[in-house]
């Protein structure tokens, strides 16, 4: 057993090989993370996303400015003004939430499934690497890109509101972090799907799951309003299946003033998810990633 | 005794009810160029994948450089050019090799040195900065070969390495395999191109429907061997002993004919000779033994004929 991290072994015919026995596994993860970034950049994914995001913020800003001018003309009370600003902000963030869901799925749906189908995975895996490191490297690459993007876009919404009308909502950071957790949940699930399914099937499944969660959230809201336990339970089950909508509802609940929680809108809170749901979502993401690493390590390629 | 670089015992892979590989047992010593020959669907690629840890065997055991294929560290000393060679298309040639170098655990200085060397060796030096997306199939295969040789491996697996190459490319690969052999590298070559195998391999295994039919050294099939087909009315012990006497140690007699009492059809006898001069003697002795000679057909044995003979008809064990 070697005691030093690197040792030189002499082979027949005078050939020297560096024995990479204890080479840091970080090397593989870093390389795959780098590869993931590079792909996104070279494939113009990053550019397209930034341009789209920029356009959206521009339009949003325009919209806010116009609505604000309209509001100011009507001489309404300060509280009512804040109420309106809040709705604008949450609406803007709802779009960001939706964009995040789309991006998290679209960007990552192909990354493992596609490599398996095209066989590019074969020369990656037959190196001195462990398969789970490849999965983690991809996860880190996409996670970093999604979180930075979300930070820019979500942060952009806050900045636009602050700069144009001087409004800041409560719990901004918590709200943003919850949106980020949403992205990570979807990313982990997408990588897991990719280890066994084709790109198309993976994508369809992810969207369907999201759709179920979306509808479930509404069912739960209406159930709470009509005091129907069955409806509320349906909603809870769908949140457990796919916690993404629940995370959004908690985020929007945190960022709204309490008065608004009586009205069922896509943005609110009759029965806001508890902090336990947030912990659940984090564990869910971690479990999906862990399972993805395990499944990928075992399957035939 | 030379180290065994590849060793398998009863390696098996089953997909549902289909047996892809059945009882693969072979040994490849260090420094040998070993060929795996067989028709499409014979289990060649699956066998290679099991040896590389891409596919988990359903049974049996495999050792690569003395270790299990699932041990990632052994992969630092192994190179692999897959049959379906596809690479990340948005990378330039140098970037691709750099990325693979990093996965090998090679440090920056070594990569800087090796990458231009390899691009030169596979004839892609002038395309170093081109994105792979613009590469032809042949160029892709060459960069695949470069990637396989990057870390100066002790063992290289080449799965149909010349399938997309023109004759110049094939010559290049042949040259590379010869260079590898000169350096003591062991090469495992999967191919259905008999000419390539004939030109480069030391030993060959014929595989069909997941089973190895025969393994032999290529020098046994080399020039100098003549395969003679002798068609006579009946194969008698007298004929056989006359032939054996005539040939002596210069060959072999293999009789496969019809049953002795089925006198309606001619029987065929196969002989392998090393000396052409024995042919007239064989004709004489055949006639002298009382047999009636219908045809005496000499042929230089080629790998192709052996292949067709072994893979087409035989189904005995290894």
What's this model, at a glance?
The complex is a heterodimer of chains A (301) and B (318). With 301 residues, chain A is mostly helical.
Question: Would you write up a description of this structure?
Answer:
- The complex is a heterodimer of chains A (301) and B (318).
- Helix content of chain A is 74%, strand content 3%.
- Chain A contains eleven helices and two strands.
- A two-stranded antiparallel ribbon of chain A has the order 1-2.
- The longest helix of chain A has 35 residues.
- Chain A is globular and about 70 Å long.
- The N terminus of chain A is likely disordered.
- Chain B is α/β, with parallel strands linked by helices and 318 residues long.
- Chain B folds into two domains: 214 residues, P-loop containing nucleotide triphosphate hydrolases (Rossmann fold, 3-Layer(aba) Sandwich); 75 residues, Alpha-Beta Plaits, CATH 3.30.70.
- Chain B is 32% helix and 28% strand.
- Chain B is elongated and about 75 Å long.
- Chain B starts with a strand and ends in a 6-residue tail after the last helix.
- The relative contact order of chain B is 0.14.
- The mean pLDDT of chain B is 87.
- At the A-B interface, β2, α1 and α5 of A face α2 of B.
CATH architecture of the largest domain in chain B: 3-Layer(aba) Sandwich
Domains counted in the coordinates of chain B: how many? 2
Distance between the termini of chain A: 31 Å
Shape of chain B: elongated
Uncertain segments of chain A: 1-22
Strand order of the largest sheet of chain A: 1-2
Number of domains of chain A: 1
Percent in strands of chain A: under 5%
Instruction: Provide the succession of SSEs of chain A.
Output: EEHHHHHHHHHHH
Structural class of chain B: alpha/beta
Structure annotation, total helices of chain A: 11
- Helix residue percentage of chain B: 25-40%
Largest interface (C-beta under 8 Å): A-B, 34 and 36 residues
- Alpha plus pi helix count of chain B: 9
The helicity of chain A comes to over 70%
- List how many beta strands of chain A DSSP finds: 2
Distance between the termini of chain B: 23 Å
Oligomeric state as shown:
heterodimer
The whole-angstrom Rg of chain B is 24 Å
Spatially, the strands of the biggest sheet of chain B line up as 6-7-8-4-9-10
Q: Look up the CATH topology of the largest domain in chain B.
A: Rossmann fold
């Amino acid at each position: 057993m070697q005691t030093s991290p690197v040792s030189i072994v002499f082979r027949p015919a005078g050939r020297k090989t560096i024995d990479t026995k204890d080479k840091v596994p970080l090397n593989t993860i870093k390389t795959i993370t780098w590869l993931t970034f590079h792909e996104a950049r070279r494939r113009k994914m990053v550019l397209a996303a930034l341009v789209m995001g920029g356009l959206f913020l521009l339009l949003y800003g325009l919209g806010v400015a116009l609505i604000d001018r309209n509001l100011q003309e009507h001489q309404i009370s300060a509280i009512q003004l804040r109420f309106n600003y809040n709705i604008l902000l949450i609406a803007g963030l709802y779009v960001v939430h939706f964009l995040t869901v789309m991006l998290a799925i679209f960007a990552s749906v192909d990354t493992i499934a596609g490599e398996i189908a095209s066989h590019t995975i074969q020369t990656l895996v037959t190196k001195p690497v462990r398969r789970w490191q490849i999965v983690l490297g991809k996860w880190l690459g996409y996670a970093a890109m999604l979180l930075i993007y979300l930070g820019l876009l979500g942060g952009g919404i806050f900045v636009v509101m602050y700069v144009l009308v001087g409004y800041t909502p409560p719990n901004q950071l918590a709200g943003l972090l919850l949106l980020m957790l949403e992205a990570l949940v979807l990313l982990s699930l997408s990588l897991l799907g990719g280890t066994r399914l084709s790109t198309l099937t993976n994508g369809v499944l992810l969207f369907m799951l999201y759709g179920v969660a979306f509808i479930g959230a509404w069912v739960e809201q209406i159930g709470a309003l009509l005091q129907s336990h069955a409806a509320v339970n349906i909603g809870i089950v769908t949140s457990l299946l796919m916690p993404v909508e629940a995370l959004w509802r908690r985020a929007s609940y945190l960022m709204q003033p309490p008065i608004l929680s009586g009205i069922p809108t896509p943005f609110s809170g009759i029965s806001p998810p508890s902090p336990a749901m947030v912990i659940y979502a984090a564990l869910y993401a971690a479990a999906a990633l862990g399972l993805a690493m395990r499944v990928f390590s075992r399957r035939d390629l | 005794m030379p180290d065994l670089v590849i060793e398998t015992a009863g390696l098996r892979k089953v997909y549902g009810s289909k047996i892809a590989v059945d009882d693969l047992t072979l040994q490849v010593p260090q420094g040998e160029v070993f060929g795996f020959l067989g028709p499409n669907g014979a289990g060649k690629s699956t066998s290679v994948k099991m040896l590389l840890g891409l596919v988990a065997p359903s049974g049996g055991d495999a050792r690569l450089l003395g270790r299990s294929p699932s041990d990632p560290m052994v992969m630092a000393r192994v190179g692999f050019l897959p049959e379906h060679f596809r690479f990340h298309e948005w990378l330039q040639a140098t970037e691709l090799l750099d990325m693979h170098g990093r996965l090998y655990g090679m440090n920056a200085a070594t990569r800087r040195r090796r990458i231009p060397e390899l691009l030169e060796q596979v004839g892609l030096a002038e395309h170093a900065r081109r994105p792979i997306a613009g590469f032809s199939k042949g160029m892709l295969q060459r960069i695949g070969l470069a990637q396989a040789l990057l870390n100066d491996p002790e063992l290289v697996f080449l799965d149909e390495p010349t399938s997309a190459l023109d004759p110049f490319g094939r010559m290049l690969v042949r040259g590379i395999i010869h260079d590898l052999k000169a350096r003591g590298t062991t090469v495992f070559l999967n191919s259905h191109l008999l000419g390539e195998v004939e030109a480069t391999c030391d030993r060959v295994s014929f595989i069909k429907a997941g089973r190895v039919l025969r393994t032999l050294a290529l020098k046994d099939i080399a020039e100098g061997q003549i395969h003679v087909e002798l068609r006579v009315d009946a194969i008698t012990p007298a004929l056989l002993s006359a032939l054996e006497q005539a040939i002596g140690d210069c060959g072999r007699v293999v009789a496969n004919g019809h049953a002795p009492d089925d006198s309606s059809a001619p029987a065929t006898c196969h002989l392998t000779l090393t000396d052409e001069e024995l042919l007239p003697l064989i004709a004489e002795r055949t006639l002298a033994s009382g047999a009636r000679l219908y045809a005496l057909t000499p042929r230089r044995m080629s790998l192709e004929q052996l292949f067709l003979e072994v893979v087409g008809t035989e189904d005995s064990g290894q």
